[in-house]
Fold this protein.
Amino acid sequence: MSLTTHTHPVQVCRTCGGGAPVDVHFCPSCTKILALGRQGDYFSFLGLARKLNLDPAILEQNFRTLSRQFHPDYFYNAAPVERRASLERSSYLNDAYRTLKQPASRVSYLLELEGALQPSDHDTAKKVPASLLEEVFALNEELDEVRDMRNGSAPEAQWRARLAAAAVPIEQKRADHESHLRELSDRWDALADDDAAGRASVLAALRERVLERNYINNLLATIEREATGMGGPQL
């Protein structure tokens, strides 16, 4: 259960009825573990600022500390509401850690959290980004030729070499995108919380890069499928 006091959302302790901020795990009044609220996010749950460049050591330390505090073994003889709360928080903690540990999923989660990216946007069947039209056209032509070579009983080494060469410019494109994502992450972390225009601009750029990166990964996966003889239709 939760409610909002002034501008600060709080959660209500089911044991004593006291209130606590949504990013607090134990009731300040009775010290009992709190039922999981849904107003917070993975960053605040782990005691981290909503930044994209996280210190892995701090993330790991906070995760381990909370893991020990929430472990169901400590609540074996506790009231049912506390046992349920420990399971809920342990599960949520694991999801948060897995998401924030990897830079790629961290960026996507931040965009979703800020309302700049919808889960459906990750669909790989969406329209080809305009910035990748040239690469997609060239790859489709190359894959057609590789298939002709393979069907024509060309030596395996020859068509595999063509596939490897086709992957080079796309791998470079991915490297360029990763570099740009790191630059945008630095810009995001440097923004003030009240810089609405700056935040909107960086979020839009991050969204574009993430969607392009997803499609680039799809292109590379297509090349890999061709290499294993499991190719599909044109991109």
